[in-house]
Design a protein that fits this description.
Elements lengths: L15 H13 L3 E2 H4 L5 H6 L4 E4 L3 E2 L9 E2 L9 H12 L3 E6 L10 H14 L4 E5 L7 H9 L4 E3 L9 H4 L5 H14 L4 E8 L5 H13 L4 E6 L16 H14 L3 E4 L9 H9 L1
Parallel strand pairs: 2-5, 3-4, 5-6, 6-7, 7-8, 8-9, 9-10
Antiparallel strand pairs: 1-2
Helix pairs in contact: 4-5, 5-6, 6-8, 9-10
Bound molecules: iron/sulfur cluster.
Length: 286
């Protein structure tokens, strides 16, 4: 369904110089961002604020989610220098709050958890007071892999459930809704100080009742922060957009989320799981 974007998607034009500067830095450091790989609509705004969500473990994923623009296939071996390069980028951008995510590496025994640990540890060691949020895959449900990341003590552990369970077979076939939900109580059991976060994209064919059911499941699983945004089709090869959810519906979901007890809910068409992440963290802590 190739349709015109609704008026609420009007965005500031990208500043080409800002983009060149950021992309130049990332290229020099052989670093990837989910901002670029997933064609995030907020890239211009985030790069102009000198923030980004760093993608570790390469830019090729072992899974085939139908909504995702990230490259799929046989990933390269883990780059041992990646944590060092990440530190360099954080120093250059003088970041106080860093979001680290990854492709899913089902080809690795620990799903790549040890690379997350190396990245968090080097930032902790070299950047005193830095705040770290990690947006992790499900590590195929491995508690040992999750324990390793928890022990590195990021401020926030984010894991997106992405959509409602009925749509998993067609939207994210290799994922498992119940397995993803188990991430949050496991984190809280291991370290209750770590804030838990999740996110969904809307407009894939879910009903309002299904979204509210997932929000209740997340609260029952002790998830504290929630992001809700509009799915945008990266290309005609990707899952079609079922509909554009109105800003009014997003704010209704925000209210429902707050009533369900989420510490904070970011819910609007252009919201993405790490968009304005530092602000959401600060609000949750206040
Ligand atoms: S697991 Fe993540 S990176 Fe891989 S295809 Fe799915 S959404 Fe994209």
């Amino acid at each position: 369904m190739k349709t015109r974007l609704p008026p609420w998607f009007k965005q500031k034009l990208l500043d080409p110089q800002v983009m060149l500067t950021m992309e130049g830095l990332l290229d020099r450091l052989s670093l990837h961002t989910i901002c670029q790989s997933a064609l995030c609509p907020n890239i211009g705004e985030c790069f102009s604020r000198k923030t980004a969500t760093f993608l570790i473990l390469g830019d090729v994923c072992t899974r085939h989610c139908r909504f995702c623009a990230v490259k799929k296939g046989q990933p390269l071996p883990v780059d041992e220098k990646e944590p060092q390069h990440l530190l360099k980028a954080v120093e250059t951008l003088n970041l106080r709050y860093v979001v680290i995510t990854s492709v899913t590496r089902d080809d690795l025994a620990d799903g790549g958890a040890s690379q997350f640990v190396r990245a968090i540890n080097i930032l902790r060691e070299k950047r005193k007071g830095i705040l770290v949020e990690v947006l992790i895959p499900d590590f195929l449900g491995s508690v040992e892999a999750l324990r390793a990341v928890v022990q590195a003590c990021p401020q926030i552990i984010n894991h997106n459930v992405e959509t409602v369970p009925r749509l998993y077979p067609e939207v994210r076939p290799e994922a498992d809704y119940r397995r993803s939900l188990r991430t949050f109580p496991t984190v809280k059991d291991l370290n209750p100080e770590i804030i838990t976060k999740s996110g969904l994209m809307l407009g894939l064919g879910e009903t309002k009742e299904e979204v509210v059911r997932v929000m209740k499941d997340l609260r029952e699983a002790d998830c504290e922060l929630l992001t809700l945004g509009q799915y945008l089709q990266p290309s005609s090869k990707h899952h079609p957009i079922a509909r554009y959810v109105s800003p009014g519906e997003f704010s209704e979901f925000k209210d429902i989320g707050k009533d369900l007890g989420f510490a904070e809910v970011a819910s609007a068409p252009l919201v993405r799981s790490s968009f304005k992440a530092a602000e959401l963290y600060t609000k949750a802590k206040s």
